[in-house]
Amino acid sequence: VYKRQGQGATIITKSDTSVTLYLAAYTSLRDLTVINDSTFSNTYALRALASDSVTGTLVANVEAQALDAGTYSHGCTLDGADTSVTLLDVAAHAGGGTYNYALEVLGGATAIVEGGSFTAVDGGTRSYAIYSSGLGTTLEATDVRAVADNASGGSRGLYNGGSATLRGGLYYADGAGTAYGIHNTGSYADLEAHSVTVEAIGVNQTYGLDNDGDASAELYGGSFIARAGSYTDGLFLSSSSNALVSNGISALGEDASTLNYGVNHICVSCTITHSVLEGDYRSAYTGAGTLRLSHTRLLGTVGGSPTCLGVSTETNFYTESCP
């Protein structure tokens, strides 16, 4: 344990065990830097075990760093249906492992996240800034900064396979392979996002938001941007995804080596209103299902057979048809 004056007054470092600090119920953890720099297969800076029923816990102004893991590096992990933790201005970092997770919410746990930053970098295969998944798992995040970088098998700003409500914040992925600003996937996935900024830059496929695997999403405001790679989708709605509803968003795909889509839709149902969709190959494309566009600006040609009402291009307005 190293102590110093000022913010983060105490530094706790472990290099001889896989977990630096376990969280406990009805406690407050403040003004700490917690580091795990061991080379075990799984390393954790902060961990709440399902068996410990960690509820009523506050973590405030804490920096959690997991470094140099053998395989799995975890900055902060919250696990279990009886786990409920509030994170206030927490900075969690994971790096050096084959798989890096800055913040994990698992097994029905609840995480209330206010501010803070979550970074997962230098992953050999995959990096997740925030990974939240499972039946009953709940993430409520306000004004967070989630950044995943430099993974060959996929970088994700947010991977959501549970219930997630986002208010503001940045979700960013920069991948040496496929990159996802937000990946919303699985039958338990239910995403509600308000005024978020989502961006992905990749080498292979690049997605602002990828909604698949029976997932549902509601988007209110915000921007969804995909850049570079072999092709880009500001919004990608796969054939296995459930309904998506959005109002007042912008979706952009640009700078791919082949195809750029604002919205690439092949799912059951999608409704987009009062939005701006841009892609130089297709601003909006539907290959299956129903895509409804109303009072929306389309910058780029439209493909497939969406339904349009009151849409416009740079030069024309279409009352009841698509460009």
Mean pLDDT across every amino acid position: 94
Tell me the span between the first and last alpha carbons.
65 Å
Give the beta-strand count.
Answer: 37
Q: What percentage of the residues does DSSP assign to strands (E)?
A: over 45%
**Poorly predicted runs of 5 or more residues:** 1-7
Helix content: under 10%
Largest sheet: 22 strands, parallel
Oligomer description? single chain
What's the gyration radius in Å? 20 Å
Q: Tell me, briefly, the overall form.
A: elongated
Overview of this structure, please?
There is one protein chain. This protein has no helices and 37 strands. The chain is an all-beta fold and 323 residues long. A hairpin with a 4-residue loop joins β36 and β37. It starts with a strand and ends in a 5-residue tail after the last strand.
Give a summary of the structure in a few sentences.
With about 325 residues, the protein is mainly β. It has strands at about 1-5, 10-15, 20, 30, 30-35, 40-50, 55-60, 65, 70-80, 85-90, 90-95, 100-105, 110-115, 115-120, 125-140, 145-150, 155-165, 170-175, 180-185, 190-195, 195-200, 205-210, 215-220, 225, 230-235, 245, 250-255, 260-265, 270-275, 275-280, 280-285, 290-295, 295-300, 300-305, 305-310, 310, 315-320.
